[in-house]
Amino acid sequence: MAKEYKFPEGFWWGSATSATQIEGAASEDGKGMNVWDYWYKQVPNRFFNGVGPDVTSDFYHRYKDDIKLMKEIGHNSFRFSISWSRLIPGGVGEVNKKAVDFYNDVINELLENGIMPIATLFHFDMPIEMQHIGGFESRQVLENYKNYAKTCFELFGDRVKRWITFNEPIVPAEGGYLYNFHYPDIVDFKKAIQVCFNTVLASAMAINEFKKLEIKDSKIGIVLNLTPSYPRSNHPADLKAAEIADLLFNRSFLDPCVKGEYPEKLVELLKSYNHLPVYTEDDLELIKNNTVDYLGVNYYQPRRVKAKENMPNPYGVFTPDWFFDEYVMPGRRMNPYRGWEIYEKGIYDILINVRDNYGNIESYISENGMGVEGEERFIKDGIIQDDYRIEFIKGHLKWLHKAIEEGCNVKGYHLWSFMDNWSFLNAYKNRYGLVSVDITTQKRTIKKSGYWFKELARNNGFSE
Ligand code: BGP
Fold first, then answer.
1. Which listed residue (28, 367, 405, 455) is catalytic?
2. 430 lines ligand 1 (CB under 6 A)
3. Is 376 noted as a catalytic residue in this protein?
4. How far apart are the CA of 423 and the centre of ligand 1, in A?
5. CA distance readout (Å), 417 to 21, 70, 372, 422, 427
6. Which atom in ligand 1 lies closest to the alpha carbon of residue 167?
7. Cα–Cα distance measured from residue 253 to residue 168, given in angstroms and rounded to the nearest whole number
8. What is the pLDDT along the chain (464 residues), one digit of tens a residue?
9. How far, in Å, CA of 118 to CA of 81, rounded?
10. Residue 383: enclosing H or E segment and its boundaries?
């Protein structure tokens, strides 16, 4: 007997994108440079096949047709990001009228097509002028971000009823200050921690401005990439390793953003290594009073850890890797193109944790997806037959369904992504879309998964 997986009425079916990854027109109509435009100019060889963010999927010029396609494949909701450097070139000062027109058009077009817009204020794309004065290390940049956020609420808040302050705020901190995959590409744990703290504070500052405006029927949240930390074994040393990974990579944002407070154990740990960030009592008060209304959960892969095999090099660089080693579990299933493990149950474990330890705050899956290289080889009858993607989505939806049955307060599921788009550093190596994009002609073609997604949304579930 086939089992039915029906989702709650009004469930959000859709996808997520970000400005830098789809818009293109990187220097058109007055847009300023962001860190990606700048970094690409400095070191194009760091980007897969030397492809930069200047054109990407040309959404800036094709949004009308793209939104029609979204509707065609069953979207009732869609997350995009506003580009700070397009709206306010340089990060501070005059608003760019052309950018206002563009985002107004996108929002209106979505609404006319029955698609709820969810707008992200920051998706890895710091205006370069702001990075040059310290990025999120700088208090001045926090102020400027706050003003940019307020401008967005004032310009678009009459129609955008769902806001996201940051997408995966830990990623620019890890990538830019520890692991060499974002600009400014330095290695400094102390700075990374300061950037993390300041981003939490910036999010609270934006929420505070949002609340002052008292916009009706409107909510503001944050999107976090939650990676459950699974220990190799129940040995206390492995458990400890997993606990520290969880504190550093999940609870460092989840706790202050949802509960308004940092976990004591994290504070103790950082203190004992003399790595506490600089903050004031007022900062903590602001964070406490401005928690999120809802939570977006991005889930791609779990983190498996074990106790360290060897002592860290005492002359080496202090990084989170002092506390745990990666555990390569035998038999784990991999997406070899991205190098990420596929473990569907992770989505359930995250949501149960949110239910039990975070007041069952309203949430939705804001990203989940599978990037695959060389998808042309799966073309049959002119369409990419991406059955692996359909299986990937189904596998996760089954666990999501179970979580909802068990009382998790989840409102929707968004795939990464609507169409193939430009990845940070990986450029167009791995393709994520329900719709393929030929990057030389910009032609869009719905993949098999796109047609499947349409049915999924139409039936508000699937059976198997
Ligand atoms: C998430 C980001 C997205 C997207 C996705 C896929 O972490 O929010 O911006 O890029 O990952 O990752 P990638 O593009 O690096 O393969």
1. 367
2. yes
3. no
4. 6
5. 11, 11, 12, 11, 14
6. 8
7. 9
8. 899 999 999 999 999 999 999 999 999 999 999 999 999 999 999 999 999 999 999 999 999 999 999 999 999 999 999 999 999 999 999 999 999 999 999 999 999 999 999 999 999 999 999 999 999 999 999 999 999 999 999 999 999 999 999 999 999 999 999 999 999 999 999 999 999 999 999 999 999 999 999 999 999 999 999 999 999 999 999 999 999 999 999 999 999 999 999 999 999 999 999 999 999 999 999 999 999 999 999 999 999 999 999 999 999 999 999 999 999 999 999 999 999 999 999 999 999 999 999 999 999 999 999 999 999 999 999 999 999 999 999 999 999 999 999 999 999 999 999 999 999 999 999 999 999 999 999 999 999 999 999 999 999 999 99
9. 8
10. strand 383-384
CA of 225 to the centre of ligand 1 (A): 10
Distance in Å, CA 370 to ligand 1 centroid: 10
From residue 270, give the alpha-carbon distance in Å to each of 244, 275, 401: 11, 5, 38
| Among the listed residues 300, 302, 304, the one whose alpha carbon sits nearest the alpha carbon of residue 239 | 304
Protein residue whose Cα sits closest to atom 15 of ligand 1: 423
Please state which architecture CATH assigns to domain 4-463.
Alpha-Beta Barrel (3.20)
Residue ID of nearest Cα to ligand 1 atom 10: 423
Domain boundaries, the chain: 4-463
Q: Is 426 in the pocket of ligand 1 (CB under 6 A)?
A: yes
Is the CB of 367 within 6 Å of ligand 1? yes
- Residues 6 or more apart from 400 whose CB is under 8 A from it? 347, 348, 351, 365, 410, 413
- The model's pTM is 0.98
Q: Is residue 172 within 6 Å of ligand 1 at its C-beta? A: no
**How far does residue 72's CA lie from ligand 1's centre (Å)?**
24
* Whole-number Å distance between alpha carbons of 19 and 286: 29
44 and 447 Cβ atoms separated by less than 8 Å: no
| DSSP per position, 214-229 | T-TT-EEEEEEE---E
Distance CA 266, CA 111 (A): 43
Using an 8 Å Cβ cutoff, are 414 and 350 in contact?
no
Note if the bond before 228 is cis, omega within 30 degrees.
no
Residues paired with residue 305 on neighbouring β-strands, in sequence order:
231, 326
